[in-house]
Each structure stands twice: as C-alpha cells, then as structure tokens.
Design a protein that fits this description.
Blueprint lengths: L1 H5 L5 E6 L6 H14 L3 E6 L3 H14 L3 E4 L3 H5 L1 H11 L3 E3 L2 H5 L4 E5 L1 H16 L15 E6 H6 L6 H6 L2 E3 L1
Parallel strand pairs: 1-2, 1-3, 3-4, 4-5, 6-7
Antiparallel strand pairs: 5-6
Helix pairs in contact: 3-5
Length: about 170
C-alpha cells in the first residue's frame, strides 16, 4: 500500500523473495492478498544466491514492473548493496523491510524497529541474569514499525513526495 502511494500508477509490482526463508510461502500469500485488494499484479521472483538476484532483476526489467517489493530476509540484508544498486540501475522504485536499505540508497523501508528489538533482548537478558526463568517470561513481538524514505533516491527516480506522506515518515534521509 505504501509503495502504491508513492507510485500510484504501479499496476505491476515485482516481489523478490528468498524461497529458503521459513515463512516464504506465507509471505507470498500475504503479498498476493494485499495486491488483490488494489487490483495490482504481483510477479513473484525467487532468489537465494547472488546469481539468482541478478537473474531476478533481469526478469524485472523484461516484465516491465513498475515497482519492487523486497522481502525481509537475512540473506537479502547481506546483499543489500547489490540489490539497491540493481534497483537504481533499473530506475525502479523499491520498498524494503529494513532501514539499512534506505541508508544504503534504497528508496524506502517499512519494517520493525530493530533497535527496539535489541533493547527488548537486553531487558530479557537482564531479567534472566537476575534469576527469572525464561519459560515464565512472556513472548514479546516487535510492535513499533518505522517508515524511512531516502529523498535523494526519490529525486533520482523523479518521484514527487507529498507533504502528507512526509508527515507520516519516521525518518527522512537527505
């Protein structure tokens, strides 16, 4: 939805996912369900190696996708420079799951605030070190999400970012 807001004419969005991720299939179903609501065609592309990432971007170019959604995946984070560079080379607006992509030059990211997760892990560790039993501690899920936009990348892509959109952004990278 956020990607469609920035690229309103995006009728075809490529979704890059790692099939080796444990929840890969459920993520695909969620993305496809969201796309159905907005009558957006989703092209699912799989990659679990550097070469497959290159091949996926070749497929994106051939399919003439209007935008790209990159799955939140540990492997992709390690390849973020490659992915951001390929998206820039194609001139395709892309949304990523972690802020590190926007910092590396990606258009935008929307995902959990990992710093908050690290703080929560520290609180848990402290409680355990003070004698708390891990089995008695509640499971905590990250609930704070952050929207980051890289305005320099938006300018390069020729995207106009509305003031309303900027008002919702948690961090703007100049």
């Amino acid at each position: 939805q956020i990607l469609r807001e920035l690229v309103p004419g995006a009728a075809r969005i490529a979704y890059l996912m790692n099939p080796k991720t444990a929840d890969a299939r459920s993520f695909v179903k969620e993305v496809e369900a969201a796309a159905e609501v907005t009558a957006t065609k989703i092209e699912v592309l799989q990659a679990s190696s550097e070469g497959e990432i290159e091949a996926a971007f070749t497929a994106i170019k051939q399919s003439r996708a209007n935008a790209l959604l990159v799955g939140a995946d540990a492997f992709f984070i390690t390849r973020r420079d490659q992915i951001v560079a390929l998206a820039a080379r194609l001139g395709i607006p892309a949304c990523y799951g972690f802020r590190e992509y926007a910092v590396a030059g990606g258009l935008m990211s929307y995902g959990p605030d990992l710093a908050e997760g690290y703080r929560q892990a520290g609180v848990y560790a402290a409680r355990i070190l003070k004698g708390a039993r891990p089995a008695d501690m509640p499971v905590i899920q990250l609930s704070k999400f952050e929207l980051i936009i890289n305005l320099n990348t938006a300018r390069k892509l020729g995207l106009a970012i509305s003031r309303d959109f900027l008002a919702r952004v948690d961090e703007v990278i100049q």
